[in-house]
Specification:
Distance between the termini: 27 Å
Helix content: 55-70%
Number of strands: 2
Strand content: under 5%
CATH topology: Arp2/3 complex 21 kDa subunit ARPC3
Order of helices and strands: HHEEHHHHHHHHHH
Strand order of the largest sheet: 1-2
Number of helices: 12
Length: 330
Amino acid sequence: MHIPDNYLSPSTCVVMGAVMLPVWTRAVKKVKEEVSKRKMPILGICAAFSFLIMMFNVPVPGGTTAHAVGAVLISILIGPYAATISVTIALLIQALFFGDGGILALGANCFNMAFVMPFLGYFVYKSIKSKVRSDKGEYIAAFLAGYVGILAAAFCTAIEFGIQPLLFKDAAGAAIYCPYALNVSIPAMILPHLLVGLLEGAVTAGVYAYIKNMAPGVIYEGKPTSKKPLYGLLIAMVLLSPIGLLATGTAWGEWGSDEIKDIVGYVPNAFEHGFNFSTMMPDYSVGGMNEIIGYIISAVAGVALILILFKILGSAKKDKVSDNNIEKVI
């Protein structure tokens, strides 16, 4: 799901970044208006959750891997605009420090996972919830919203991959960037995510139920807003994160030059002469350290960076919204 650099042309990256600019601008404005200073840490916890859930790779047919995102869950909990901010920060930290997703491709990755996924998922959730007014119906709505949301994100990713060989070729007719056309990229992304969607839906419904019971103030006005159950969830996810190492293989469309050459028989020009950015902990590893320990340290580092960033943002925020007037966001 994370598009690396050099799979998309610079012009595609610019267009996707330009599309996201008004989305980010609107999201920042809505968060300033609707989220109180006291609730800003909740956005950080949600961003940390998304960061961690994306470390839990699962094997999918074809020998590749995939992961849940958590964007629809966050949208249901704190609203789609706040979800855009939270998931964007998670994706930014992943790209800058762990090499998971490209720097130039950040706009495209945010469009797929921080815009399309939370907004469409939120619409599905609200539509179903309005027709099935019960706790069971609410959880079914959350499950289906998560399922539809990740399928939509996968489809958008497939389109962005698939248009590259149609638009950008060298003099010999070889693809300069991603070499997979739409007839390959769409089924390669959609079919595995039909299964991964079950995981995304289960995570969305299950964690929503957990928060509804353990920290209802995140969802409802006037209810207890203890963060201990939320931090407990993050700690458990950090400790369990090495489970993501059990899935062997690389996620579809995230191969390096050597793997691409083995698959298609040549290395696209951009892979040899394109943009390269070295990160501190590539692939969530720490040089010279045991793989499992390095993965846990990466998880701790990512969560710490996200929580510190949102702590700074919360401290700088002028609280124009009274805690007593926060509206229920779902």
